[in-house]
Amino acid sequence: MTGAATPVSTQxxxxxxxxxxxxxxxxxxxxxxxxxxxxxxGADVVLTGRxxxxxxxxxxxxxxxRTAAFDASDTARLERFFRDLPAPIDHVMITAGxxxxxxxxxMDSAQVRQAxxxxxxxxxxxxxxxxxxxxxxxxxxxxxxxxxRRVGHGLGIISAATAALPPFTATLxxxxxxxxxNLIAAGFVDTPLSASLLGDQLEERRKELRATLPxxxxxxxxxxxxxxxxxxxxxxxxxxxxxxxxxxxxxx
Length: 252
Description:
Shape: globular
Largest sheet: 7 strands, parallel
Number of strands: 7
Strand order of the largest sheet: 3-2-1-4-5-6-7
Oligomer: single chain
CATH architecture: 3-Layer(aba) Sandwich
């Protein structure tokens, strides 16, 4: 006698259910899409950004309940933000800041210091202030890039700044354990920041990438967001750098 077949459920539990995700720079682009993805996976999301109007619009779009408008490079304000944030939190992603291009000899000393230290100093300040409130197994997620790995005209200081991030990430992962630290290295991503940098050359760049990238399309913020949420959910990942550029570094 054969028993009735047991139905197989196609539903799955949200990957971040009951967890809190803080996105530093979450009002647009990769940060906004990561927040959207985290919410869809059951997380409670806290958005921060420098522009209050844009941050409010992002929160309304996503239905996010908690926001804080401030400049993340303001150390005192960053410290106050984490101090006032209800604990515990699980994941912190930093997308604030952007690449700095230009010939080295045209940069003054202050610009060079800022370009090299901007992301590292910000990550270090976030780590200092967030670590005590983070659950074991959570992750501090940093953003870097793959294009800066190649030295070339017009890239300037970005190659040195890019090279510093993977060992910094690995070292911080050891010091913050059991909180995890990981780095996403993205190539060109079709974001408002990219549009502002390229101006009327944006569409030409898109066409070039569609024609040359092995994946045959341009990488978007949602692609990076999917990787970010996977890194948050997979508690075996720490101290590592994850490239997401559609193969750009191999064909540039």
